[in-house]
Write a structure and sequence with these properties.
The termini are far apart. This protein has 531 residues and is of the alpha+beta class. The protein is globular. The strands form 4 sheets. Strands 5-2-1-11-10-9-21-22-23-24 form a 10-stranded mixed sheet. A 7-stranded mixed sheet has the order 12-13-15-17-19-18-20. Strands 3, 4, 6, 7 and 8 form a 5-stranded antiparallel sheet that branches. It folds into 2 domains: 143 residues, Purple acid phosphatase-like, N-terminal (Immunoglobulin-like, Sandwich), CATH 2.60.40.380; 371 residues, Purple Acid Phosphatase, chain A, domain 2, CATH 3.60.21. A hairpin with a 2-residue loop joins strand 1 and strand 2. The chain binds fe (iii) ion (FE) and calcium ion. Calcium ion binds next to loops.
Length: 531
């Protein structure tokens, strides 16, 4: 009932706003010569800036990257104000920030079937440098964005600075973290998922979702756009090139492959997933190989920066087996003794194709540091009180056999300096990845650094107090701080800085951030040390 009232209310507000807009169009047309052409322009969506969603660049190669924009007059509305027509958008790329040395330009069609989004895959640029780009439609120009190409694979790279982020619940607070991130000027940004949250509006929060929980393409578009209208997030996208993976909330909380949280009919859930995946593609600077095919979108990829570091960006949502011993949809914890599915070797988190692809990558010794960039906590974390073994099932703890295969491959392939980065748990974690989790003296195979959320709530540190002793490989859990992680990488050292928002309630968009603590991993020696 409440829900219906709210929808009706919204409709009334919208139509009133539309009427006002129409009235002002007619008024301005009457004032100008050539009222007829004005009407055409109005129909073409030219009475207002269509670049309100800003620009973005993504998926860098050594000779190019993807540049993105999307035309929308009312981006956060289901009817976003564009006629269902293809529109020709001009783009240009410059070697200089003021766009006075254009090296490439062209035109591209913004298709209504793709929400009037524009993805241009630049090629033929020089490696290891920055470029600037912008878009034009009629008299309107987008803001200028910056993008980077990677240094050629294997070429020497002395230092690289990048940031990673996750979990930016819009209703939980503002994005001072993104303002700080831009000021810190990383060369590259990796988003590890929960770019949006799909829940209904919450009337008690500092800012609110618009519209109900999205199920259709149009609703997901509007939800993504609401997030992207945040000025700090837009600035971060314009600042440099990003790469992406997603977690659950881009579609539905704790979904697993074709299983929704509410145990919808899998076929129907896949229809919803197609809508969500398409909106994701439309809103992100992804290459055409990621264009969705029905309910599938190929997101995982490898990005290499010279001889210094290789990112293996993983998708652990789309192909995973269902949660173990779960009859309710994304059940949070299981007791190991009561769940034989946990140790079923046929269960997978990445799917066979991605797992094989990753195994190959891990055998490649071209880069000094080898990153597994993925969405959830990798390390084992026993949550059981009084001697029992209890594991959360939505992360790798729900898929220990799949995790074991990766650890085995890291050992067998002698992957140089493996580093895991992750999100999802809304807290900072630093952990040693052990060859045998239950044997503290066993070899440390890799170093894990989970980043906290941009805004999403992380619970209390005290919840973990009683669990520390039984998880000696976990060196830090910090759940009460919001922010992100900045990494500075050289051939000799991997450095992690926890950039934290001082106002932990993030109710102030101008809140400052500071480096709360730092860790390093030395070349050739797995395991983090606090500095
Ligand atoms: Fe999250
Ligand atoms: Ca999540």
């Amino acid at each position: 009932m409440y829900y219906l009232d709210k929808l009706n209310q919204k409709k009334t507000v919208l139509s009133r706003r539309r009427l006002l807009q129409k009235a002002s169009l007619i008024a301005s047309a009457a004032l100008l010569p050539g009222a007829m052409s004005m009407a055409v322009r109005a129909q073409g969506g030219l009475t207002e800036d269509p670049f309100k969603l800003g620009v973005a660049s993504g998926d860098p190669l050594s000779d190019g990257f993807v540049i993105w924009t999307r035309l929308a007059l009312y981006p956060t509305e289901v009817e976003y104000g564009m006629r269902p027509e293809a529109m020709l958008v001009h783009w240009e790329v410059s070697e200089t920030e003021n766009m006075n040395r254009i090296v490439q330009e062209g035109s591209v069609i913004a298709h209504p079937e793709l929400g009037h989004s524009v993805h241009v895959e630049l090629r033929g640029l020089n490696p290891g440098r920055e470029y600037w780009y912008r878009f034009r439609y009629a008299d309107y120009q987008s803001r200028i964005g910056r993008g980077i190409t990677t240094p050629v694979m294997g070429s020497p790279l002395a230092q690289f600075k990048f940031a990673y982020v996750s979990c930016q619940h819009y209703e939980r607070g503002f994005y001072p973290a993104y303002r700080d991130l831009v000021e810190q000027d990383p060369q590259f940004i990796v988003h590890l998922g929960d770019y949006i949250y799909e829940n209904d509006p919450n009337r008690f929060t500092v800012r609110r979702h618009e519209g109900p929980e999205p199920k259709t393409l149009e609703q997901y578009r509007a939800r993504y756009s609401l997030y992207r209208m945040d000025p700090e997030l837009q600035r971060a996208h314009a600042h440099t090139t990003w790469a992406f993976t997603w977690d659950d909330h881009e579609v539905d909380n704790n979904y697993a492959n074709d299983q929704s949280q509410d145990r919808d009919d899998p076929q129907r859930f896949l229809e919803r997933r197609s809508a969500a995946y398409q909106a994701y593609y439309e809103m992100m600077p992804l290459r055409s190989s990621a264009k969705p095919q029905g309910a599938h979108l190929h997101l995982y990829q490898r990005i290499v920066f010279g001889d210094l570091l290789a990112f293996n960006i993983l998708d652990d949502r789309q192909y995973r087996s269902d949660h173990p011993c779960d009859f309710t949809g994304g059940g949070p914890n299981v007791m190991a003794d009561l769940c034989s599915e946990l140790t079923d070797p046929s269960r997978t988190l990445l799917g066979a194709a991605q797992e094989g692809w990753l195994a190959n990558n891990l055998a490649n010794h071209e880069a000094r540091w080898n990153v597994l960039a993925q969405q959830t906590l990798f390390s084992q974390y026993n949550r059981g009180a009084n001697g029992s073994a209890v594991y959360a099932t939505d992360g790798w703890d729900g898929y220990p056999e799949a995790r074991g295969r990766i650890i085995k491959q890291l050992v067998r392939a002698q992957t140089p300096n493996p580093i895991l980065i992750g999100g999802d748990v809304h807290s900072y974690w630093v952990a040693d990845v052990k060859e045998d989790w239950n044997e503290p003296s066993s070899r440390t195979v890799a170093s894990e650094f989970v980043g906290t959320s941009i805004t999403s709530n992380g619970g209390l540190n005290s919840q973990h107090d009683a669990l520390r002793q039984q998880n000696p490989h976990v060196k830090l859990i910090e759940t009460e701080q919001r922010g992100y992680v900045m990494c500075t990488v050289t051939p000799e050292q991997w450095r992690v800085d926890h950039r934290c928002v001082e106002d932990a309630g993030i109710l102030d968009p101008n809140s400052q951030l500071r480096t709360q603590r730092s860790f390093v991993v030395e070349n050739g020696r797995a395991g983090a040390e606090q500095v």
